[in-house]
């Protein structure tokens, strides 16, 4: 009895090389997809992990809009029976006393004193030592930089000294610089026992905040304390794990999805090309089957099973390979961040997703060929007679639709990108024909008559060859766009940061700045202006879907520093003045999920309040994950009364000297000095590392597309067996046949590269001119990527052609002639 | 022109060895038109392939135009084919992407020897096979008879020492076949072209000077047009 699965297996493995290359393309497509899904999930987990580590098991915290507050203010909570754990913390800025010669800003350190280092409200992964509530806890990066270990003594200027009791992994709470260069602008963070810090500072009854855990949801306690503390210096907030304020990695996720989509699209396209050709080749076979009683459905089923076998095989190999690649990718990705991050590979859900997609996509891409196989007419001769006029009509239609879609370059809309890419695919036969004519003299020079034959051969299956080149082109163009975005992003960020930073330097103090402090700062030669910046933080709020989030609310005024960029800036200030309302940064607005004019719910020092959202603006502050409020309403209605930050306008050359002087003059309460350049450097540092990843991705995508080229050339050769036999019989040497195939591969690769670079340039150009991007991406070509694309595109296509040419030159003349 | 000595060809498939040609001796003079006939599997097509250097014998010598094909390397045989031999196939074997003119010029292109003089010769050939005005037409758009005419012109373009034709009329109707055979016969008479033709068709064989009959891998009979038997044999066969 006939076993349809066995027959299908025989069919797909009949041509070993084609089977191998198709399977390879599918495996690589599935594995790239899997690796990106794994990377996506694992990256999310990594950031969640660090956020959860920061939050630990705390439910609420009581903070102050002053730096510290008396412990007695929270005694009611400490006594509440619903409260299971509390953690008291006091922050104090200090300086390390070091043997080496380091500036004050390099030595600045924030000490957090806690009443219990082993509290369940703290998560400190210990690398060395123990949390004994007696000594200092150092993060690994700081310990390495200072050359200290457990048992060593650290000294703090004018405060005291203590032994190191533990070295811990990176946590947000103790985020510290890992080199002296970043120590210039970032303080170290260490942890000490609360009593020790109180002893050193004399703040015996003071704390900066208290975190606590409750039984149940603690809403009653929260509400009652919130009401009781209105008008006081303290306020209560739920503890919310929200990493959006500290990380803007949405672009990274877009990158993952783009690469995953591109890989699966390319392999799907290769599958389509192969299966469609296979169906066309086997029309006679299907006609015979149908004449013997096979129905349309049973022929289609045969092809579907072939496809399922391929999909199953590629998924079985591609998914495990992808998980391994995902691990490699994560190692490379996390190495671009400033601090050492640990991760646990999240592969289970991505694996399931990849299996589903890996099985479905090949089938979806082969639906048309499957349908086409079933529709095979027994009267093949008639079919073939009709085909000539139909295909020329189709060719015209393809070109016309392609031209229309390409006209979307003039439409500034996200959909235009898809339209342009489809337009390019449709216009590729035209490009391939045109380019073939242009390079014929070069091919003739390089390959003699074999070069001319290559040009003529390519025109024989112009659609298939053009599709193959188009796959390469699309891959190249998207990666070029990505490369251009990554390359110009630092400039875009710099422009945005400089436009909305509000000054040249931001100085943060532990205590509110006095008028004497301001006067002293203004007396500095290189300080032109000093403005106050009020930041209410952390403020929790609800999204429209009811999720708790957390951000900062910054005060703004028409006469104050410009903290956001908007063409309707003056109108927006007026709106903020009219009633207690907020402007949301674009990321906060997206996360909130409402519309301008609606209200946002926030937990303010004056209790839970609704504020109308007056608009959405672009700002560099917290990458747009922030809110702005008129300074008077922030003070009176919102309930935030103090300012710890100043924005200085300075002579740009004098940044370092001012920084030194600030630490020297205000070292007793200064906690942070950041210049606009520091902010730019910290925002763009991870982006520059992405460039290397883009180059690797470009190479991988071109490799994947080149497998498509090898496969197409093999199909072309197989279809032209008889012609090649004739050529050999008439005196074409094996070398001439090889040269001919090489020239064909070179033409496909060249047109893919030329088309890809041209499309990439168009995409970069329209992105740079797009109003939607607001000039974030400038029109600059990623030359490194273009050069790599050209070299890799042509050379890998030549490799693909070389593999195929070996088959062609080894062909047996007599059996080839019989094929005719 | 052609001298074949003790020609043996064996094919091996798995454990099975099949001797297709069993020690054949054959001599064809310059300018002769020879038809080879025989039942399927008798070895006639294999002989033609060996004469054309498309395959190598298991044993024996093949001498064409004073060159031992069996002693040549693969590349030498390829170059010999494009310079000294002409091929006509049953299914024409034209290259579909090339025009009539380009198809005919193919062996010269492959040899890198297309000159103005040769171009003139190509046009003469096109005229002589009755395809004037079709120079730039794609070969695959021609009728079967026209395609075979192109194939004949292509086979003659390099002034071959020997023209090898494998069932040249096998795919044509009687009228078209006759036209092709007349054409071949004309070239044979006018240019003293040596032709070796494998055919199943006794009508086609009637145009040849000699008829070689194959049976079980050996030459069964050689009949010359000059001999009385030839006419008798053909008449009997036709009857």
From TrEMBL, chain A:
InterPro entries the UniProt entry points to: ABC3_permease_C, MacB_PCD, Macrolide_Exporter_MacB
Chain ranges of the MacB-like periplasmic core domain: 468-637
Transmembrane helix among keywords: yes
Domain ABC3 transporter permease C-terminal: residue ranges: 258-377, 696-812
Membrane topology: Multi-pass membrane protein
Compartment(s) where it occurs, according to its Swiss-Prot or TrEMBL record: Cell membrane
Family, as annotated: Belongs to the ABC-4 integral membrane protein family.
Signal peptide: none
Pfam family, one: FtsX
Residues annotated as transmembrane: 255-281, 302-325, 351-374, 395-411, 417-447, 468-486, 693-718, 739-766, 786-804
Source organism of this protein record: Bacillus badius
Keyword Metal-binding in annotation: no
Assigned keywords, A-Z: Cell membrane, Lipoprotein, Membrane, Transmembrane, Transmembrane helix
Protein name: ABC lipoprotein transporter, permease component
TrEMBL record, chain B:
MF-aspect GO terms: ATP binding
Keyword vocabulary terms for this entry: ATP-binding, Nucleotide-binding, Transport
Occurrences of domain ABC transporter (ranges): 2-235
A Pfam entry, by short name: ABC_tran
Residue ranges the record marks as coiled coil: none
CDD domains linked: ABC_MJ0796_LolCDE_FtsE
Entry-linked InterPro entries: AAA+_ATPase, ABC_transporter-like_ATP-bd, ABC_transporter-like_CS, MacB-like_ATP-bd, P-loop_NTPase
Family as reported in the entry's similarity comment: Belongs to the ABC transporter superfamily.
Name of the featured protein: ABC transporter ATP-binding protein
């Amino acid at each position: 009895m006939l076993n349809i699965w066995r027959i299908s297996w025989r069919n797909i493995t009949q041509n070993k090389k084609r089977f191998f290359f198709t399977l390879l393309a599918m495996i690589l497509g599935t594995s790239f997809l899997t690796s990106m899904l794994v990377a996506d999930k694992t990256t999310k987990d990594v950031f969640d992990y660090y956020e959860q580590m920061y939050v630990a098991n705390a439910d609420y915290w009581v903070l102050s809009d002053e730096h510290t507050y008396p412990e007695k203010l929270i005694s009611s909570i400490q006594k509440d029976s619903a409260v299971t754990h509390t953690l008291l913390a006091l922050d104090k800025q200090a300086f390390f006393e070091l043997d080496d010669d380091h500036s004050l800003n390099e030595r600045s350190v924030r000490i957090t004193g806690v009443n219990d280092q082993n509290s369940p409200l703290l998560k400190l992964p210990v690398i060395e030592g123990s949390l004994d509530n007696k000594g200092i806890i150092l993060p690994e990066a700081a310990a390495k930089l200072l050359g200290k270990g457990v048992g060593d003594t650290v000294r703090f200027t004018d405060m005291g000294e203590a032994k190191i009791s533990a070295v811990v992994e990176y946590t947000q709470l103790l985020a510290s610089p890992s080199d002296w260069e970043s120590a210039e602008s970032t303080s170290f963070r260490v942890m000490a026992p609360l009593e020790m810090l109180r002893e050193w500072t004399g703040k015996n009854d003071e704390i900066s905040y208290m975190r606590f855990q409750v039984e149940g949801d603690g809403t009653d306690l929260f509400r009652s304390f919130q009401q009781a503390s209105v008008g006081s210096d303290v306020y209560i907030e739920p503890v919310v794990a929200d990493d959006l304020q500290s990380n803007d990695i949405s672009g990274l996720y877009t990158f993952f999805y783009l690469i995953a989509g591109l890989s699966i699209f390319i392999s799907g396209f290769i599958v389509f090309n192969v299966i469609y050709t296979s169906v066309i080749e086997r029309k006679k076979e299907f006609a015979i089957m149908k004449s013997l009683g096979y129905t349309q459905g049973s022929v289609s089923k045969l092809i579907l099973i072939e496809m399922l076998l391929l999909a199953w095989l590629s998924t079985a190999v591609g998914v495990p390979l992808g998980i391994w690649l995902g691990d490699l990718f994560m190692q490379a990705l996390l190495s671009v961040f400033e601090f050492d991050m640990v991760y646990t590979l999240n592969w289970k859900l991505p694996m399931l997703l990849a299996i589903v997609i890996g099985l479905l996509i090949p089938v979806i891409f082969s639906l048309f060929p499957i349908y086409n196989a079933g529709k095979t007419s027994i009267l093949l001769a008639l079919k073939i007679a009709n085909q000539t006029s139909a295909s020329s009509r189709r060719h015209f239609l393809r070109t016309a639709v392609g031209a229309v879609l390409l006209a979307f370059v003039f439409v500034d809309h996200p959909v235009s990108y898809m339209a342009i890419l489809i337009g390019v695919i449709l216009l590729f036969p035209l490009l391939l024909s045109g380019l073939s004519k242009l390079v014929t003299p070069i091919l003739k020079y390089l390959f003699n008559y074999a070069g001319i034959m290559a040009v003529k051969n390519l025109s024989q299956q112009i659609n298939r060859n053009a599709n193959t080149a188009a796959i390469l082109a699309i891959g190249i163009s998207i990666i070029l766009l990505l490369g251009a975005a990554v390359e110009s992003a630092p400039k875009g960020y710099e422009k945005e940061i400089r436009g909305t930073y509000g000054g040249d330097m931001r100085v943060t103090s532990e205590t509110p700045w006095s008028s004497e402090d301001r006067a002293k700062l203004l007396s500095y030669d290189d300080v032109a202006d000093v403005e106050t910046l009020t930041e209410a933080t952390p403020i929790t709020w609800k999204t429209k879907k009811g999720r708790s989030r957390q951000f900062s609310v910054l005060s703004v005024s028409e006469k104050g520093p410009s903290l956001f960029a908007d063409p309707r800036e003056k109108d927006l200030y007026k709106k903020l003045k009219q009633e207690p309302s907020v402007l949301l940064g674009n990321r906060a607005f997206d996360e909130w999920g409402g519309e301008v004019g609606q209200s946002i719910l926030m937990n303010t020092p004056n209790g839970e309040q609704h504020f109308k959202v007056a608009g959405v603006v672009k700002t560099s502050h917290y990458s747009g994950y922030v809110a702005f409020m008129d300074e008077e309403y922030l003070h009176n209605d919102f309930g935030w009364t103090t300012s710890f930050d100043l924005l200085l306008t300075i002579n740009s050359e004098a940044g370092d000297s001012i920084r030194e002087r600030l630490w020297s003059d205000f070292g007793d309460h200064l906690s942070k000095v950041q210049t606009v350049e520091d902010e730019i450097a910290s925002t763009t540092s991870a982006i520059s590392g992405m460039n290397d990843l883009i180059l690797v991705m470009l190479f991988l995508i071109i490799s994947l597309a080149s497998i498509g080229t090898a496969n197409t050339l093999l199909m072309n050769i197989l279809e032209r067996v008889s012609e090649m036999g004739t050529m050999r019989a008439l005196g074409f040497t094996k070398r001439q046949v090889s040269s001919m195939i090489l020239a064909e591969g070179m033409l496909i690769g060249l047109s893919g590269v030329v088309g890809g670079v041209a499309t990439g340039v168009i995409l970069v150009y329209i992105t740079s001119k797009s109003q939607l991007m607001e000039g974030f991406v400038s029109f600059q070509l990623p030359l490194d990527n273009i050069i790599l694309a050209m070299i890799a595109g042509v050379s890998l296509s030549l490799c693909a052609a070389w593999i195929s040419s070996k088959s062609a030159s080894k062909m047996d003349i007599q059996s080839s002639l019989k094929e005719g | 022109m052609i001298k074949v000595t003790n020609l043996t060809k064996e094919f091996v498939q798995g454990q099975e060895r099949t001797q297709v040609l069993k020690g054949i001796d054959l001599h064809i003079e310059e300018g002769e038109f020879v038809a080879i006939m025989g039942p399927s599997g008798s070895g006639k097509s294999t002989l033609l392939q060996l004469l054309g250097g498309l395959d190598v014998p298991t044993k024996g010598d093949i001498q064409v135009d004073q060159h031992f094909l069996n002693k040549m390397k693969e590349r030498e045989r390829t170059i010999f084919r494009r310079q000294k031999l002409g091929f006509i196939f049953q299914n024409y074997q034209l290259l579909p992407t090339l025009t009539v003119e380009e198809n005919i010029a193919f062996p010269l292109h492959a040899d890198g020897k297309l000159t103005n003089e040769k171009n003139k010769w190509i046009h003469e050939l096109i005229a002589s096979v009755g395809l004037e005005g079709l120079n730039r037409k794609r070969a695959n758009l021609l009728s079967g008879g026209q395609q075979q005419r192109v194939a004949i012109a292509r086979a003659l373009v390099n002034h071959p020492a020997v023209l090898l034709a494998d069932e040249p009329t096998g795919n044509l109707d009687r009228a078209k076949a006759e036209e092709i055979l007349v054409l071949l016969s004309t070239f044979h008479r006018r240019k003293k072209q040596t032709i070796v033709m494998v055919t199943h068709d006794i009508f086609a064989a009637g145009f040849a000077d000699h008829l070689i009959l194959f049976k079980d891998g050996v030459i069964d009979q050689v009949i010359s047009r000059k001999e009385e038997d030839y006419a008798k044999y053909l008449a009997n066969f036709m009857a």
